[in-house]
Amino acid sequence: MRIAAGALALVAGMFCPALAQAQSGTAPPADESVLGVLPITGTAEEHVTTLAVLPSLSPDRADVDVRSIVRRDLELTGLFKIVPERNAPVGTYGFDDPVDVPEWTKVGAEVIVKAAAKTDSKTGKVTVFGLAYFLNVGKDPVYEKKLVVDKKDIRVTAHRITDALLGALTGRNGGFASHMTFAKKWARNMRVFTMDADGNELKPVSDENHTAIGPAWGPNAELFYSFSKNYAPFKVFRHPNAFPLPFSGSVYGIAFSSDGKRMAAAVSESTGSSIYVGNADGTGFKKVSNTRISTHPVFSPSGKLAWVGGGAGSGPQRVYLDGKAVSPGGFRAAAPAFCDTEDGIRLVYSVAVGGDREDLVTSGEKGGGTVRLTQNQGSNTYPACSPDGRMLAFFSTRRKSKGLYVMSLKRWKTQKVNSQHGQSLRWDPLPPAPKSQMP
Known about the structure:
- Strands 2-1-3-4-5 form a 5-stranded mixed beta sheet. Strands 8-7-6-29 form a 4-stranded antiparallel beta sheet, with no helix packed on it. Strands 9-10-11-12 form a 4-stranded antiparallel beta sheet, with no helix packed on it.
- The chain folds into 2 domains: 5-31 and 178-431, TolB, C-terminal domain (Neuraminidase); 49-170, TolB, N-terminal domain (Rossmann fold, 3-Layer(aba) Sandwich), CATH 3.40.50.
- It has helices spanning 5-15, 17-24, 61-77, 101-106, 154-170; strands at residues 49-53, 80-82, 111-119, 126-134, 143-149, 178-186, 189-196, 203-204, 211-217, 223-228, 235-238, 241-242, 251-256, 262-269, 272-279, 286-287, 293-299, 305-310, 318-321, 324-325, 333-341, 344-354, 357-364, 371-372, 380-385, 391-396, 403-408, 414-418, 423-429.
- Helix 1 (5-15) packs across helix 2 (17-24) and helix 3 (61-77) packs across helix 5.
- It is 13% helix and 40% strand.
C-alpha cells in the first residue's frame, strides 16, 4: 500500500516548516512585537561564579574521560566562568592527591571541582571520585563521593557526578544523565538517531533502508518511533519491534505523559490528521483535537497536552493547549516543548518570521507573557528541554554552521554541541541509577 498524496503533503508540512508556510499561502505579519523581546535583564553585569576543574595528568584513560566529561557538562550549563586549564597551579593531580585550595583561590576560583577515576588492573572495575568546594561556605567540601562501576558505565557515571555536583552547588540537580533522540535525512530516507546530552555517542537506531520519523522516549526510557517500510502507512515501533495501535491510518508521532501512564498520537485521517489520547499500553484512545491538521503532541510535566493545529479556514498553524490556541495569531507555530524550570513550567515553540527563518519563543505554561529566545540568528527549530529545566536544545542554521545547539535558560549563553541537523528532537532522563551507583 502506498501513502496517499495527501498524506505525503501532510508529512512534508510536519517535517519541513518552510514548505508548510509556502503551501498555506500565509506570511507572518510585519509587526513582531507580539513575540516579545530577548530576555536581557538589568543594566549591570550579573556576577558569574568562577569555577575550576582540576586537570587530569593520569595515564589512565578512565581518569581522562571522567574529568573531560564533567568539565564539558559544567561548561554547557552556562552557569559558570570556567578557569582556563593554562591557569592551573603547578602541582600533583593524582587520584588520591589532596586539593590545594589556597593555590586555586589565588587564580580566582570560587568553586573547585575534582573529578577523577582509577582503574583496578585486577578486576577491571573503575573507582570514580567527585569532590567540590564552595569557598564562601567554609573549608569542608560541599560534595564528596566515590563510586565503583564497570568500564562501560564510566560515561553515564560522569554525567551523574555532574548532576550531583550541580545539586550541591545550586540546590537543583543537573540533567546530564539523560539522552536525546531525533530524526534526520539519511541517504534517501529519514532515520532515527540517539545521543547523549552532551552531543556525544551519536547512534543510528532505525533501519537505514526504510523511513522512520517522530521519535519519543516512553516508559522505562524505551525508544518509540513511527516507521514506514516500502511506502506502507507509518506504524509505531517500540524499538526494535512493532507496537500495535488501534489506527488504520499513519501515526506520525507520539508522546508520553511524565508519569508514563498516558500516550498521545498524531494520526492521519481522510481530510488531515488528529490527536488522540489513550493509555500508555496502546488502548482506550479518544480524539481530543478539533482542527483539520493536528500534529506534534507533547505533554506538560503537569499533565496538560499541547500540539500544533491548523488547516483550512483557521489561518496559520498555531500551538494548542488542551484544545485552546495559545500561540500568537498570524504566526505559523511549530514543535511545542515544555521546560520545568526553577521559575515554573514554560512553553517553548518556534514561529515563522519570514525569509524561511524561524525563531524560538517561550511563554507561561498556558500561554501569555511571550518572550523571544532567538532573533536574527538563522532558523531555529524543534526545541527540547533538559530534564532539570536549565537548558534548551534546538537545531539551528546560525552563523552558517548548522547543528544542534544548547541554550542556558538562566544565562542565555548558547553553544553548539553537535553538527547534526534534524527534526523532532526529544530530551528525556535516563532510568534511575542502581543504589550502588547513586552519586
